[in-house]
Specification:
Blueprint (H helix, E strand, L loop, with lengths): L15 E6 L3 E6 L16 H10 L10 E2 L8 E7 L2 H9 L5 E9 L6 E10 L5 E4 L6 E12 L3 E8 L6 H8 L22 E9 L6 E5 L4 H7 L1
Length: about 230
């Protein structure tokens, strides 16, 4: 992972620990509970807005802004990229198929096969909930590769290679196979004992939009995951 001078905590945007920054991109570790961009119920308290304020450095007249490249669910933590120019955003989006994204998740139970690929067409309903469907005309084909790296009597820790990037894809696919992610009230089940959704974007590899170098950024798996697996 490229090295930079560590940014003092007081200058870090709330909910987003900056891992790398140059004139073209910002890469950071998003905390769980923060929206990437605005939603119907919240327009202001987002990582996008926080980064806009960060690049403006307190100048109310500044029109500087960051550009959204991809998103993480509000409850998901981990590596998240923003572009600092529109041209960088276009390049990253146009080359997104060559981006490698690794997630870790703790799911309920033990999978029959310790590794495999889950594939289905995904479609969103009128309530903004994603579903697998046999309708290839309306759904988008999605692939989630997984490997169980640790198992207990109750849970499995999975390393997930997100081969496609649909909304809520990992959450839907794990629920489909009968092993929902811990803490996922939307697609599985949750209890008061489960502090958060146990899904984390651990690493991402992509081509830099300006210099063409291949960059990889990694974050630590949350301690909460280790607590679940003990």
């Amino acid at each position: 992972m490229p090295k930079i001078n560590k940014i003092p905590k007081r200058h870090q945007p709330k909910g987003y620990e900056i891992l790398y920054e140059d004139q073209d991109i910002l890469v950071g570790n998003k905390a769980p509970g923060f929206l990437t961009v605005g939603a119907m119920w919240e327009r202001v308290n987002t990582i996008h807005n926080a980064l806009n304020q960060y690049v403006r450095k307190g100048n109310a007249r500044s029109r500087k802004c960051v550009y959204v490249v991809h998103r993480l669910d509000q409850a998901t933590s981990g590596v998240l990229i923003f572009a600092k120019t529109e041209s960088a955003q276009i390049f990253l989006k146009d080359n997104w198929s060559s981006t490698n994204k690794i997630y870790y998740a703790v799911v309920h139970g033990r999978l029959a096969q310790r590794s495999g690929t889950i594939s289905s067409y995904l479609v969103e309903d009128d309530e903004y909930v994603m579903h697998s469907t046999n309708d290839s005309d309306n759904g988008k084909m999605s692939h989630t590769a997984y490997t169980a790296v640790k198992e207990t009597a109750k849970f499995s820790l999975l390393k997930i290679d997100l081969l496609t990037g649909r909304k809520n894809q990992i959450r839907v696919h794990m629920a489909d196979c009968g092993h929902p992610i811990v803490g996922d009230a939307k697609y599985g089940r949750s209890s008061a004992k489960e502090k958060r959704l146990a899904l984390h974007s651990q690493s991402i590899s992509f081509t830099h939009p300006f210099n063409g170098k291949r960059l990889t950024f990694e974050t630590k798996i949350p301690e909460y995951f280790d607590t679940l697996m003990k």
